[in-house]
Amino acid sequence: MNELISKRWSPRAFSADATVSDDELRLLLEAARWAPSHGNSQPARFVVGRRGTPAFDKIFDTLTRGNRTWAFRASVLLIGCVITKDDRGDIPNVEFGLGLAMENIALQAVHLGLVAHMMGGFDPEAARTAFDIPADVRPLVAMAVGHQGALEDLPEDLQAREQRERVRHPLSETVFTDSWGQSLFG
Questions:
Q1: What is the CATH number of the domain that holds 144?
Q2: What pLDDT, in 10s, does the model give residues 59-88?
Q3: Helix axis angle, 54-62 relative to 124-131, nearest 10°?
């Protein structure tokens, strides 16, 4: 398996002193731009804020209380949105397109020596209001990006979560053949 995939994880410990350069941020978003999408519809759109800017603060304010305990140290916060229509009409599978774009950002972050953490814990309506997001655009996910920080900077409960072993369901539980539940990999 490609090392970018095996090294990707979602830490919460970010360095509050580090920054993401303009070139790095552009590369992350270029990676998103090249993600596959249904009919090449490219539905992914992003609202981006760097730490210390009003845009960062507005994104931060949309996060749930749990995510606020650590995300303030990230260099960049972003909200991944989808357009739902284009000149051909309604766009199918927009979530698929955004998911692939977000994963491309996460993998590009690994390649650059950065870390990224996707978050479902944010208020899409607050984001819509804060950024005047049009009605036909749906904010779906937030992400923190930056440099790995010190474990000690996190609350104790999150320190424990950061150190847990990364576990994935085995293929025998997730890949089937002939009938549901009949594993391809025994």
A1: 3.40.109.10
A2: 999 999 999 999 999 999 999 999 999 999
A3: 150
